[in-house]
Amino acid sequence: MSVRRLPVFLLFLFAIAIAIAQVERHLCVVTWNVENVFDTLHDEGFNDYEFLPHGERRWNSYRYWHKLNDIGRVVSSINAAGSIPDLIGLCEVENDSVIAHLTRRSLMRNLGYEYVITNSSDPRGIDVALLYQPVRFRVLEKSSINISMQAREKSLSHHSELRSTRDILYVKGLSLTTAGPDTLHVLVVHLPSRAGGRSGDRLRRIASSVLWNVVDSILVSSSSLHASSPEPRIIVMGDFNATARDRIFKSSPLFLTDDTSLPGTYCFRGFWQWIDHILVSKSLACHGLSYPVELPWLLEPNKSYGGFMPRRSFRGPSYHGGVSDHLPVVLHLDL
Known about the structure:
Helices cover 24% and strands 28% of the residues.
């Protein structure tokens, strides 16, 4: 190499180094309700009979693996700053076996994800899970927070009201970037359904109160340890079954990251709504807005109301072959 070309070569290496540093400071967060990911085996003690081969939905191995591979295909397509998502919160997954198959045997098997999952008392056995890249996030603590027990301890409701609600998944870990390791608190939620009118609204408000109490305890415990330390970094994500205008967010100590200029994540009778959210603490609130992923194969024409809608796995009891009735939500954080 000539001496004349050496400065240009060094400049090229410097540009590459900057690009790599930017990628390694970047954290990509995804949340997605993947619509009833059941395996084909009966889970003792839970009402999963409709998702068995001889059940109402005729759920079988082909449909199961087709869905897992479609989820992997979507995750692989969310390419942020040259890398796949670092943290993925999943809602409506049946059990540990499902997530093991997804991360070890589907199209995601070579992506290197580890995972943490709840073990809720939901009647159908529905859980939430967190997938993470171990080179970017190191788990320090994990727990499955039973909402009904927490509500009873806080005198928010009778134990029986929320005994079958999905647990909150809490994971404390270290985000590993070129900025250095930093503690990150991650919670994945799937709040009670909007079905049931006022009863459903009440249960969702109680569950959200438990959630915000957990977040408050993180904020208080962190500040009590070091009065001069910055506010802890907290991410809460999942299916809230509520839009940003819902009163459950009025008592939230966190910030919604929805890009409200975009339609939303769920389409009901032709109207798009944001019901899947990513919320962050003040220390992360200035790092961007979240947005739904609108890959072509995730959508289809809405023949009843016009426009487009998510292409779901089932329409009623009939198999439709789509991925989910919700769109994934992505948030890019620069740490």
